Give the backbone structure.
Amino acid sequence: MSSIIIFTFLILLIPPFSISSPEDDNLTAYEVIESYGFPKGILPIGVTGYELDKSTGKFKAFFNGTCSFSLEGTYDLKYKSAIGGIISKGKLTNLTGVSVKVFFFWLNIVEVYTTEDELGFSVGIASAGFPIDNFEMCPQCGCGMDCNGVSVRKNKTDLFVSSL
């Protein structure tokens, strides 16, 4: 009888997991975020791997090192060697490892969300939305979207000004 109680107790302690099909194992981090409704361009080129717990939505992406770049001379962005958050359809919350320079201050981007035609970014006290088309291409560490003197981004972005 006591072995049944111990077995039941152990089953309750084991966290739930999801079984992924071999097809899922072949997806890149870029394809995974696209499957949740995000454009691949929210991740810079150079993701070396990722982790996804489908049961909780915990997502992590890994780079060989930190990654910094400027977008159109307006925003400086920094990605740590590991970034993460909770991903669900059209929403990435509890984001860690990504920061943006607004004026003279570095602020952590804590949430990314999509609407029909916009991608929104929140730093907690303020948020800003940009045309989703701006994120069709992935930025490159060091030069962003203007590498080798060729700009691939077509729409101008605005400063973080909207308050929550």
